[in-house]
Amino acid sequence: MPQQQPGELPSHTAAAPWVAALGATVLIQVVASLALAALPTIGPLIMRDAGLPAETIGQVYSFGLLGTVLFLAFGTPILARLGPVRTLQLGTLVAALGTAALATAGVLPVALLTGALLVGFGSGPNVPAGTHILARTAPPAHRTLVISARQAGAPLGGMLAGVAVPPLAAALGWRAALLLVAGALVASALAVQPLRPALDVDRDPSRAVGLRALIAPANLTAPFAALGLHPLLIPLVVLCFSLSVLMGTLSALTVSFLVEARGLALAEAGAAFAAMQAAGFAGRLALGWLADRTGTATRDLLVQSFAASASIVMLVLLPAGSPPTLFLLLSGVVGFAALSWPGILNAEVARFAPPDRVAEATMGTVLVGFAGLVGGAAACSAVVWATGGWTIPLLAVAGQAAVFAVVLAPRLRAAWARS
Q1: What predicted TM-score, i.e. pTM, was given to this entire model?
Q2: In terms of DSSP H, where are the helices of 261-357?
Q3: pLDDT recorded at residue 316
Q4: Closest CA to 337 of 281, 377, 280
Q5: What's the rounded Cα separation, in Å, for the pair 45 and 205?
Q6: Contact call for residues 419 and 229 (beta carbons, < 8 A)
Q7: Which of 192, 152, 191, 157 is nearest to 35 (CA)?
Q8: Is 3 inside any structural domain?
Q9: Mind listing the pLDDT tens digit for each residue in 73-95?
Q10: CATH number at residue 350
Q11: Count of domains forming the chain
């Protein structure tokens, strides 16, 4: 039997290396998103045992997103040194450690924040490492769809969290549910190991990863410097921030909003959250395919901003006592409009950035996006806590997306014309 050469995928995947690469990156994305989404889906239970208000899960979730920001800010040398697959594996193991910490000591505030931080930090490599792999391996004619399909792993993980984690928490306790999630993270890290020799061929073993290299000004500024390499990247990253505010708020607070303000049972709210994530999954595939066919991805993103804003307003204004099925349906509409954009946007960043700066430009974009995720969820949660009302804060979150789309539209059209 011929020996596998360095840089080759195993024989059963060598005919279509991008398919195997997509499968590996989707798997890691799904379980990482499952771990992060598990916190808000069972947030009322965790907060109850911690003696805290249910809406404070938004603060904990935001702290988890801060962990992702930390990786994106400092992680460029790690990704270059280890390669994208090994970096993804390392991230899932860190997330598993954080999830286990939450399961064993999650009612202590310091454990809540530390565990969430580790889960978020472990999720940090997913977008830059996954985009780096697929930008190099995916067929150019289908690149937006392929990268969107990888990003579809995020709402798929959230959907699984909404469907599976609340029932598991009800049957076994929320601690046992989180331990099962930690086990899934470890299993996924082991599952992608056979692909590492082929997909980590461009790693730089000589790249320094010590503290001095991580905190060097050149390392910290590289992701943002890469965003100045094409006129479309800056308006795209601003749009990313706005849409991320929507995403972070929806991910952190939907279940608590439906339970606390609209009177749904936890299982009903979890089902609505799952419907939102499932629709986001479908939207990433459908709209990614559409963007490849039409070649108008930036215009599509602006349309999505308006659609997301309108759908969230409809969900928020749906009164208590409405049929749970209506909440379920509207949550699906919100998910399709508001959670389906990341793959399209990241594919555009990969298309306009120089090939050797794709990972850095993606890191810069995602850093700004996570500032929106963290800031949106934390700010909305704080206003709800301070005022005791959900409607005005959520409507403000929805409205800012439409405002940003109006402001950015002329510049995006001009930048597109120059591309």
Answers
A1: 0.71
A2: 266-294, 297-317, 324-338, 342-352
A3: 95
A4: 280
A5: 45
A6: no
A7: 157
A8: no
A9: 888 889 889 999 999 999 999 99
A10: 1.20.1250.20
A11: 1
**pLDDT tens digit string along 135-153?**
888 887 787 788 888 877 8
Q: Residue 290: exposed, middle, or buried by beta-carbon count in 10 A (0-12, 13-18, 19+)? A: middle
Cα 236 to the center of its chain, rounded Å: 17
Question: Which residues have C-beta within 8 Å of that of residue 322, sequence separation ≥ 6?
Answer: 262
Closest CA to 235 of 419, 366, 362, 405: 405
Its sign, for the CA torsion 342, 292, 409, 226, is: positive
Residue 208 lies in a domain: no
Give a yes or no: residue 4 inside a domain.
no
Residues contacting 165, CB < 8 A, separation 6+: 34, 37, 38, 41, 42, 177, 181, 270
* Averaged pLDDT of the chain: 86
Residue 147, token pair as written in the block: 């990268």
Give the model confidence (pLDDT) of 219-243 as tens digits: 788 888 888 888 888 899 999 999 9
Domain encompassing residue 155: 17-195+214-418
Quick check: is 202 in a domain? Answer: no
Mean pLDDT of 294-321: 91
